[in-house]
Amino acid sequence: MYKLFLTIRYVFKPLSIVTIGALAISVIIFTFAPSIMNGFQDEFHKRIRGTMSDMSLRSDRPLDVPYLESIEKSLESVPGVKAVAPFIEHPALDRHVNKIDYCLIHGIEPRREEKVSELRQFILPLRDWILAREDWDIATPQKKKIIEGYARVYPGSVEQSKLELAQAEQALAAAKARSAGAEEIKSGEAAVEQARHALDFAEHQIDKVYDWLENGYPDPNDPTKRIPAVLAGLFFMKIYDLDIESVVKLTTAAGEGTEVQQDKQFVIVGAFRAGSHDTDRRTLYMSLKTAQSFIGTQRVSGYAIKLDDFNEARVVRRKALEAVEALRGKTGHPAQPLAAGGTEVDLGSFAPECDPKKTGAMALEFRSTSGELLEALPIQAVAGSVAVLASAATMDHTVAETVRVRLGYNPRHLWVKTWEEQNENLLKAVGMERLLIKLITGMIVVAASASIFLVLFMSVQNKVRELGILRAVGGSNLGALQIFLGQGMLLGGIGMLLGSALGLLVAHYVNQIANFIHMLTGWHPFPPEVYYLEEIPSKIYWSELVANAGITLVLGFFAAAVPAIIAAYRPPIRAIRHD
Amino acid sequence: MTEGKYPIISVRGLVKNYPIQRTDASLLARAFGRAFNWTGRLDEWKKLNVGLPILKGVDLDVYQDETLAIVGPSGAGKSTLLHLMGALDAPTAGTILYRGQDVGRGGRSTDEYRNRRVGLVFQFYHLFPDLNALENVLVPAMVASSVLGWYGGARSRYEKRALELLARVRLESRLRHRPAQLSGGEQQRVAIARALLLEPELLLCDEPTGNLDRKTGEEVLELLWELKAKSGQTYVIVTHDRKLAERADRCVEMEDGHLRDAKASAESAPG
After folding, report:
1. d(Cα A124, Cα A272) in Å, to the nearest integer?
2. How far apart are CA A475 and CA A431, in angstroms?
3. How confident is the model over B254-260, as a mean pLDDT?
């Protein structure tokens, strides 16, 4: 009986509330702090990555990778590679009335690109664009209302449209159920019809954007003509007050002897938001074809690669590079007599792996059996499957044992890197930050655990004398132990549960809390400009949480158990004299 | 007056050594002692581990119904002897027999002995600070009962007895007060009521008036005598108080770990 009575008496004391409070605060800290750190890290990683694919094959030199099916195929054949898409990255100047600025042309094949990056997710539906272009910070409530109402006319994302359709259908069903007037039902049906249209549009709007990118946007003055189209970043458009269907003038050159393309006009057919500020400010997406003809090249900057499993990146990278290296050797072919002078040669017979239609600058290599290069003939142009040699092949080709088609690139300049390796320095800095944060979080957890340890240790330590008295009036050592351990565990358990619950609540509603602080004091605890994050990210790793809680609980148990066991198994008089 | 009576407690060859205070120096000495032990020099090690001798072979019999006073200078070992008799500590050597059974062995029988057979009154009261006077008195009864037994009748029985006892020690108006709200004399009276709740055969009092002023001390003593007259229990009282010692049936003197009074030594007792 005394165990039950004394445990209850010891737990329901004002001091216990203090103990539980202290425990709960510690637990809140180590629940909340790591979740914010984790969320921040995740979000920041995502932002850095932006539109980047898992991995890419690139060259040291700009626009130096041949646009060849053989390369694509050999990359695709590498185990672990999910998808491959060619891309062009090239700087350009953009002119706006009397201002000139630089931007980055990103040539892609949209339907292939979305298999290697998250392009589709980044393109803003019309409604989102209308909402995003407004400056919400300075908008009055009335203006906000007007804009929101105005934006609703435009279709949002597929999910939004589905939701709205469901709502309209529900409203119609409700109206029918209470047998409303014919007029109301009619308007309800009209709303459903409109929502259906909106959904239809929403489902196709991004494909439409892709079509425009690939085929050009119809010229309003001359419907037979098509204007090349671009997809612009949100900040780019906001800065120059551009809208969908606005025209941008771009200037660029390839540096391969082509003419400088000045003030070529492109029409904006969509806006995107990748999250990384630089991308959203400078990048203009256009189709690969458009980019090639604009720059004046047959080549690409590289190939974006999507992996099955990013953890295998190291292995895949090596294999991808090997596959590309191997291409060179593969094109070897026994010598064939060549006619002198500007001769046309069937390229397919020299290099069956090459798609002659796609081939840019190339060379024919003549090698001896020992592999020594005898002569390299540049190929000037490609027509159908026939290569036209630039100069006369004067040498005695019987000497040459092998003829190779050099693919016009030097694999020494090629490299395959993951997106992380391309951003190595930035990620190193972030990694450093992460390490520090982990360290600090670890210290917080240690401090919290220490305080839990101390609270429980002291609460038991204070009771050692009472434990002695209890033994003196006949309590068994096991019974006394049960009381004091029970008290410690009960306090620890309640504190842990309370703290975990509060910590999770705080982690979940951190943005509301931050907004509340902002509202009260005008001070922003997490200024959104710093990292371009609209809200405080928080991510709870349950395994981490459970591990932390478990460690603390075990520690708490020992904190309560050690002094209690020592006291319970000593002669009672020594516990009584304890201080 | 002890002639022809059977002792309820007999102490034989009781030795108690307290461990030497563990300072850094003695820890070092212990560590070296272990090393000596390993090298076969057991004697050095033993010497270091003997500790401080408090009781050096005490023989004593306590008889039914008597009041035994143990007097002696501070540090002579009176309280230690009493604590050993109450099974609050384990003897280094020797035995304490309660009606022929060894109480120094620990375990369930010792717990029961402390709970039912003896009542303890300390100089510093040692009440539970979180419990009120009534609850403090009831603790031994709670220890003796199971949860079912407690709510199945034991509670009302013991509460009645506790109220009676508290009335007898003139604390009926302070039942719900905590120890901190009571004076020293009142706390000691609560402690006496607690010691007597389960009607033990033996009441061990360790300087019950040592912490009280003279008047309060006398009150407490009067109370003890009054209670003894009613219940006829056996009292062993450790005290400095000569007056108290004179009122006792028998008085033994403790000096330097030995009992001095020849009359009280075991040899003079029958059996």
Report:
1. 5
2. 57
3. 87
Compare CB distances from B128 to A469, A474, A573 and report the shortest one's residue: A469
CB contact under 8 Å between A1 and B89, yes or no, is: no
Output the six-digit token pair for A392: 């006369």
Chain B residue with CA closest to A13: the answer is: B130
pLDDT of residue B190: 94
Which residues from A are below 8 Å from B144, CB to CB?
474
For domain B7-21+53-268, the question of CATH label 3.40.50.1000 is answered with: no
Cβ pair B149:A1 closer than 8 A: yes
- B194 falls in which pLDDT band (50, 70, 90)? very high
The reported pLDDT for the residue numbered A525 is: 73
Average of pLDDT values for B101-118? 87
Burial of B118 (0-12, 13-18, 19+ CB in 10 A): buried
List the A332-334 sheet strands across, edge first. A332-334, A402-406, A362-367, A373-383, A386-389, A344-346
Nearest to A405 by CA among A380, A377, A382, A386: A377
Q: Distance, in angstroms, between A453 CA and closest chain B CA?
A: 23
In which residue ranges of chain A is pLDDT below 50? 329-343, 348-361, 380-409
Q: What is the pTM of this model?
A: 0.61
What amino acid occupies position A112? R
Amino acid at B13: G
Query: Angle between the A542-568 and A477-508 helix axes, to the nearest 10 degrees?
Result: 160
Inter-chain touch B88–A571, beta carbons under 8 Å: yes
Residue A143: count other Cβ atoms within 10 Å of its Cβ.
13
What the block records as the tokens of B177 is: 């007060």
Domain positions in chain B are 7-21+53-268
- pLDDT at B118 (0 to 100): 93
Q: What is the distance between the alpha carbons of residues A577 and B232, in angstroms, rounded to a whole number?
A: 31
Reduced to 3 states (helix: H, G, I; strand: E, B; else coil), residue A93 is strand
Residue of higher predicted confidence among B82 and A565: B82
Q: What's the number of CA atoms in the CB half-sphere (13 Å) around residue A454?
A: 8
Q: Do A472 and B114 touch (CB under 8 A)?
A: yes
Length of chain A: 579
Express the helix, strand and coil content of chain B in percent, nearest 5 each.
45, 20, 30
The answer to whether the Cβ–Cβ distance between A472 and B111 falls below 8 Å is no
Asked whether the beta carbons of residue A476 and residue B131 sit closer than 8 angstroms, the reply is: no
Which member of B88, B111, B130 has the closest CB to residue A10?
A: B130
Name residue A376's beta-bridge partners: A365
Percent of chain B with pLDDT over 70: 83
- Strand, helix or coil for residue A63: coil
| Residue A16 vs residues A210, A436, A456, B19, B132: alpha-carbon distances, Å | 65, 35, 10, 36, 18
User: pLDDT category, B271, cuts 50, 70, 90?
Assistant: very low
Spell out which chain B residues touch chain A, with contact meaning CB-CB distance below 8 angstroms: 83, 86, 88-90, 108, 111-112, 114-116, 120, 122, 126-131, 139-140, 142-147, 149-150, 194
Tokens of A336: 């064939």
Cβ distance B128 to A572 less than 8 Å, yes or no, reads no
CB-based contact B88 A476, cutoff 8 Å: no
**Is the model's pLDDT at B101 over the cut of 50?**
yes
- The token pair that represents A246 in the structure block: 């606005």
**Alpha-carbon separation of residue A268 from A109, A227, A284, A319, A322 (angstroms):** 17, 10, 9, 39, 40
Predicted pLDDT at A372: 63
CA distance A132 to A232: 13
Backbone angles phi, psi at A511, to 5 degrees: -70, -40
Name the residue facing A474 among B83, B140, B147 (closest C-beta): B140
How close does chain A come to B61, measured CA to CA in Å? 22
Which of A4, A466, A472 has its CB closest to that of B147? A4
